[in-house]
Amino acid sequence: MQRIGLTGGIGSGKSTVASMLVQRGAALIDTDAIARSLTLPGGQAMGPIAAQFGQDLVQADGALDRDRMRQIVFQDASAKRRLEAILHPLIGMACDHQAAQAQDRDIVVFDVPLLVESGRWRARVDRVLVVDATEATQMSRVMARNGWSAEAVQAVIAQQASREARRAAADAVIFNEGLDLAQLQAEVDGLLQQWMAADRR
Ligand code: ATP
User: Is 13 among the annotated ligand-binding positions?
Assistant: First the structure.
């Protein structure tokens, strides 16, 4: 089994590439979805979050008030670290559990938007695949997909690793720009062939 860490900036096309890999038989472990499920009503992170940040952060239904939490960590680096100290070990355990259930697959893809920002991920995967696009393309895609303003997309891009930092951490890069979906699929298939050939050697 090969463990692929998939990352890229907002709107680069990670989810699109992830779906293409799944179509070819890979198992997908989505760390954003895991983080969300940990902070739903009854989620494993909710007790520690309430204890650390107060009941104000918990909605009436028992889920995390994500908007308030986002505002807090945006302004307060120590709060961000404390939240990560709660979430990261739980996410790690959930990933291990899901990976153990995918033992029969040749490829397991970990979709980790902040893989480069949180360095500890490198040791968990065999290869890092970066989906890259220019900032102009990131902006136009996310404005179209989410209906966000240019400033809102720019603010997220500014918080994420630079394209250069991501490319420096990559074992493979897909430059998802000027490619239609069939061409993107061909890039994905080319990488899969390389990885499978390397695995047989
Ligand atoms: P986020 O970080 O916000 O989750 P992402 O990196 O997962 O974003 P996607 O959701 O895969 O990005 O892509 C962003 C948008 O751009 C989507 O609407 C997707 O359909 C579109 N898109 C991505 N790549 C292409 C492409 N090669 N051709 C056409 N549309 C594309």
Answer: yes
CA of 138 to the centre of ligand 1 (A): 8
- Whether pLDDT at 47 is above 90: yes
Interface confidence (ipTM) of the complex: 0.98
Pocket test for ligand 1, best of 6, 16, 36 (most atoms within 8 A of CB): 16
**Residue-wise pLDDT tens digits, 82-102:** 999 999 999 999 999 999 999
Q: Name the superfamily (CATH) of residues 1-26+106-201.
A: P-loop containing nucleotide triphosphate hydrolases (3.40.50.300)
Ranges in the chain annotated CATH 3.40.50.300: 1-26+106-201
Residue nearest to atom 14 of ligand 1 (CA): 11
Residues touching ligand 1 (Cβ under 6 Å) are 8, 10-16, 113, 141-142, 145, 176, 179-181, 184
DSSP string, the chain: -EEEEEEESTTSSHHHHHHHHHHTT-EEEEHHHHHHHHTSTT-TTHHHHHHHH-GGGB-TTSSB-HHHHHHHHHH-HHHHHHHHHHHHHHHHHHHHHHHHTTTT-SEEEEE-TTTTTSGGGGGG-SEEEEEE--HHHHHHHHHHHH---HHHHHHHHHHSPPHHHHHHH-SEEEE-SS--HHHHHHHHHHHHHHHHHHHH-
49 CA from centroid of ligand 1 (Å) = 32
